[in-house]
Amino acid sequence: MASETAKESHGSAHRRPIVRAFELLGQRWTLRILWELRDERLTFRALRARCGEVSPTVLNRRLKELRANAILDHDEAGYGLTECGQELGRHLLALNDWARRWAEQLGTDREA
Amino acid sequence: MASETAKESHGSAHRRPIVRAFELLGQRWTLRILWELRDERLTFRALRARCGEVSPTVLNRRLKELRANAILDHDEAGYGLTECGQELGRHLLALNDWARRWAEQLGTDREA
DNA sequence: TTATCATGCTACTAATTGTGTAGCGTCAAG
DNA sequence: CTTGACGCTACACAATTAGTAGCATGATAA
Q: Looking at the complex, does the CB of residue A26 fall below 8 Å from at least one CB of chain B?
């Protein structure tokens, strides 16, 4: 069970997909960006507005990275999820249900 | 379909749960920590080793935050997921499948 | 033509956050 | 009483993000 430990050289190339995914998604704004694009294309500025006027510096950096990873693409209509990105989007949608229950639980814990 | 737009006052208190979740999960190491704890309890030091010797400063900060949000708890056996955290863990497991397909696709795209 | 406006995006500084290493206080074992 | 592991803090340095200004481009309109 601990046989994986050896593989865990934190080089860069052959890191497990899930870990690479976490590195990508675990950056500020990445999840939010995907969420806002979950069912519509948005222009740079519209997307920025949805994210509470994030710094364009970061937004652009994320967008580039996400495009490089084939999760987003860009056309005249703006930014949007690729097919692969949409699959990811569906997972986020599932997370939404979890989040609601989570928030509810936290709320009741604290009010009582 | 765009009827949600109005709700998007980016105040702070009544932010949608999913957005709060993204703020929490979208911090460096948070997803990874949850992943490493997905099916076993780990001590601080063991967990740190699993995460490639993250700085204990950040690790401890995340652990505190996650505990404050009832996603983790801590006992003599170390850190582990709460019931709520385990549900989240299951979502991450699902993400694992996505990540594999994603990596595969990226790989073939580039080799060709 | 010139003015207006929105678009995507870059530049630059300040503030926040993360990294890396050392090490403290506590405990159990030798 | 040394040794080692534990959870964790301190602190200086590096990297990332925030916040704002503004440019180049293209469309619209006077």
A: yes
Would you say residue B86 lies in a domain?
yes
B4 domain-assigned? no
Nucleotide nearest to B44 (CA to C1'): D7
* B29 closest CB neighbour out of A17, A26, A71: A26
- Model confidence pLDDT, tens digit, residues A19-45: 999 999 999 999 999 999 999 999 999
DSSP result, chain B: --TTGGG----STT--HHHHHHHHHTSTTHHHHHHHTTTS-B-HHHHHHHTTS--HHHHHHHHHHHHHTTSEEEETTEEEE-HHHHHHHHHHHHHHHHHHHHHHHHHHHHH-
pLDDT digits (tens, 9 = 90+) for A57-99: 999 999 999 999 999 999 999 999 999 999 999 999 999 999 9
Instruction: Give the minimum alpha-carbon distance from B36 to chain A in angstroms, rounded to a whole number.
Output: 10
Q: Looking at the domain assignment, is residue A53 inside a domain?
A: yes
- Test B106 with A30 for CB contact under 8 angstroms: no
